[in-house]
Amino acid sequence: MSETLLEVEDLHTRFATREGTVHAVEGVSFSVDRGEIVGVVGESGSGKSVTARSLIRLEDPGYIERGSVRFDGIEMTDADDRTIRRVRGDGMAMVFQDPMETLNPVFSIGEQIVESIKVHESPEKQGLLDYLNVPLFSSRGKRSQMRQRAIDLMSEVGIPHPETRVSAYPHEFSGGMRQRAMLAIALAREPDLLVADEPTTALDVTIQAEILQRIRDLNEELDMAVLMITHDLGVVAELCDKVVVMYGGQVMEEGPVEDVLTNPKHPYTESLLGCMPQTCARGEPLNVIEGRVPSMVGEPTGCPFASRCWCSSESCTSGELPTEQVGDDHTSRCHHVEELSESMEAEQ
């Protein structure tokens, strides 16, 4: 039996705005086992990235109203700063969507990898070092060893000629190389869980495939769990073992990748699959989901997908959504699971 590494239960993350409280994450629950790759998929505005940031406690300026995020036995929602620093280094690491917004343009790639190693090597001392303004790259560190470790990490993630590129700056790297550099920084302390937030966005398909293959290789070599945040069902199909489908800050469907993608049990999942270019004949217009993602300001009622759903009814617009067990480890939050199944059988 697999060991659960991350368990999220009834997570609610909010943002206070002038228009009102944004319910960005609303009762999200899922788990990640050691060595497992889990995809979180949904269109823009579905709450995927806020969920990911909440796990690693980077939700500011938002806040976690209630719920549990338990990582390797540690409750992250009420952990102190020292514990969170330690978990971010040795336990959980994150690759962000846009490396140009994350990488520091005035430090070389090698220096930024070394920074990640040093910061998380002694997290209990980092607050004092920050207060005293001690340089991260001072002579107190074993600079040559750190540099070699940076070179090794760059090699691991597929950056060619790391011995020379370790001294290069972010603007000297291509988009794919910068994303690899971000991956090297995240892997500096060999985390148990890698949270990857849209790591292949804005990359061409060849580079996307290389990045995804590198993540798969690292997963197998290090037995490292991966939480892949994406809007691309192709990425989910290629890389993930399990998928969590989100919409309107809520989980709509969850289960093994093959079951969910070949036998969806929620209208939103079915609609997403119908929008894939592969489902359209050449020369025909691409399928779209009519309507817009609902506003997440204010207390949600009913199913967030109801206004865009072809099988919605009055029961969908108010009250709690039921969680239906539709297969082994496969659940759907929908009032009309049976109707959807009958419709799909009729189409086949």
TrEMBL record:
GO terms for cellular component: plasma membrane. It is a peripheral membrane protein. Its main location: membrane. GO terms for biological process: peptide transport. GO terms for molecular function: ATP binding; ATP hydrolysis activity. It is found in: Cell membrane. Pfam families: ABC_tran, oligo_HPY. PROSITE patterns: ABC_TRANSPORTER_1, ABC_TRANSPORTER_2. Keywords: ATP-binding, Cell inner membrane, Cell membrane, Membrane, Nucleotide-binding, Translocase, Transport. Residues 6-273 form the ABC transporter domain. CDD domains: ABC_NikE_OppD_transporters. It comes from the Archaea. This is ATP-binding cassette domain-containing protein. The lineage of its organism: Archaea, Methanobacteriati, Methanobacteriota, Stenosarchaea group, Halobacteria.
